[in-house]
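Let us practice reading a record.
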Amino acid sequence: MIRLRPVPLAFALLALGSHAASASTAYGDLNNFDAVNDTGQDCHGFEIELDDVRSTDITYTYDWNHYGAPKIREDLSDPAHPKVFVRYESAKNPDGTWAAYTAMPAAPLAPTDGHSCTDPTRNDGCEHFGVGYYGAPTAIRYNWLVDDGTGNLALGPAVAVATPTWTYYPPVAQNPALPPDPVANPIVQPAAVVAAIPAPDIEVPAGKDFGAPVWMKVIKTTTHNADPVPLAELISDDVDGDGEQEWRNNEPDEVESEWKLVQNRADGGDLAPALAPDEMGDGNEVVTRRYEFYAYNDPNPINQGSIDGETGEAMCDAVDADGIHGVGTSTVTDTNGDSYEFDCASLAVVGDYIGAQMVAFAAEAPLGLVDHLQPADTTEAYTPRTVVVGGNSPYVIAVTQGSLPPGMTLGEFTDPDGNVVPGVLSGTPESGGSYAFTVQVTDADGTTASQAYTLEVAGPAAPQQFTLNAASSGTGSGTIGGNGLACGATCSVLLDAGTTATLTATPAADSVFAGWGGACSGTGGCSVTMDADAFVSALFDKKQFTLTVAKAGSGTGTVSGGGIACGSTCATTKDIGTQLTLSATPDAGMVFSGWSGACTGTAGCTVTLNANASVTATFAPAPAPSKYTLSVTRSGPGTVTSKPSGISCGTACSASFATGSSVTLTAKPSTKKNVFVGWSGACSGTKLTCTVTMNGSKAVTASFK
């Protein structure tokens, strides 16, 4: 939905008209004008005061003059009546002189069309200024700025808008039973003459090239020698009562009317007519205008209408003398992309009456951003400035390149009245300098606009800064602290140039600090002077403990497990919390007697290293058995017996005997024909007897033939 906004002039006329005799002069409409320096002295700036509006109402400021972009200041000393001052002012040279000025013209300047003094490379006594705004100021004042004699700027003479004084009679109820009489029964004055123009809802497809069109009927009345013009003469169809409507028939020389189309382009181009005073000559200095507004009628906007379906452009840009139909032929494109030609005269293009004012008028443009921003200062809060204009809220606003000055924000702003205004730059900049950034905005219709800005901030620049990066490494963990750092794995901090950063390394409970790396070394303190970006690392390792393994006892054996294999004594060092499982293996003839130290018993040994630890494994010879076995093998015919008894080999060839005892074996051939050949194994010889000491298991062979 596109809404129309008036830019009121009527109040400014009332405020300034009385100064015409002694004040300087401006040519052009009130938000885009040439100001002539006929003050009698050099000037060093210009100020525009708008009463009963806020800084967030400012949508436009002209900056192509000797003073550049103006400063904007909001005066809230009277909360009920805020004021905004748009102030163009000269800077100072190093020697204290003014850097810019507007000279007195060498000769009087003739009235211009309000756009002749736009070249700041020339200084011929004329400058171009302007301010656009929402809202309805109750007064607008213009003043040159002059040197007050102490090197400071002060308000100089007021600048009069080139328009006469005029008389307004408030709306009065007319008695229809009595004849009209200017005093006894005055003509009713339409309230719309001073009321804000209602904002008509005109449907315009989203994303079109053009904003909503509206017809403006301009009724112009010339004045002679700044004589007042009664407003009644501008609103009555029959001033002299002769039955003729002067605006439409037999108009006198001093009154004329014309139709103009008001429509804005999405690219910022304004198709609205220039509302500047006419050059009248012959002592006729100005033109007073009444503006009547009528909706642009598009009977069938889809197929046979007078609005181009692709661009949204109003194609009938002139109105016939009947005040209803268009003039000429035009070619339009419908929403399907098909083009056709039609005769505007066949269409009633003038729609419903909207209202009337003594105002300049601007149709709200499609989505856009202001083209520049007023400078800022670190010593004061930035006067909140609307950046986004037009389009349909809500908006999505982002800084896509660069960055705002630190301390400033761009987004929704709540003014002192509690109104939430979108797309406002505000805050107090923290450091001086030149800040370049690009703002992008997308409105509710999906239309996108962007604008690059350079915001100049007066005040001390932020000190040069360097980045200190810190990181920890190693098997352990810990923190690095100091100068704003508090990091585990990695962190960084910006520090002013020349700052000496003093860092500490604090290991975790299970870790130890092993030393610095990067810009520091060793295990002591770490200090870094920030004359460039720097990097510091801290090495943290896990705490380690030693497990010592020893062997005891008269026996022998081995201890293994956890990566160790111990003979008599061994040790291993591991990270805290490491769990080691040991096993003890006795040699032959030996036995494992048990653990002592960090383990006990004879089962497996598991040690968790949360401190240094020791373990001892005890080995001993295996105890001797109570009996040993004596085995006899017989070869050939014969028998072997034992004393003590137990062996009778033929049938029993082995027996157990007490440890340490002596066993005598006797060999006996089976017959007289047989012969005992001899012993082997634990016995030898050919005697029939053999004695064996049982200090172990023994084996004996007896051979017969």
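A brief commentary: The mean pLDDT is 78.
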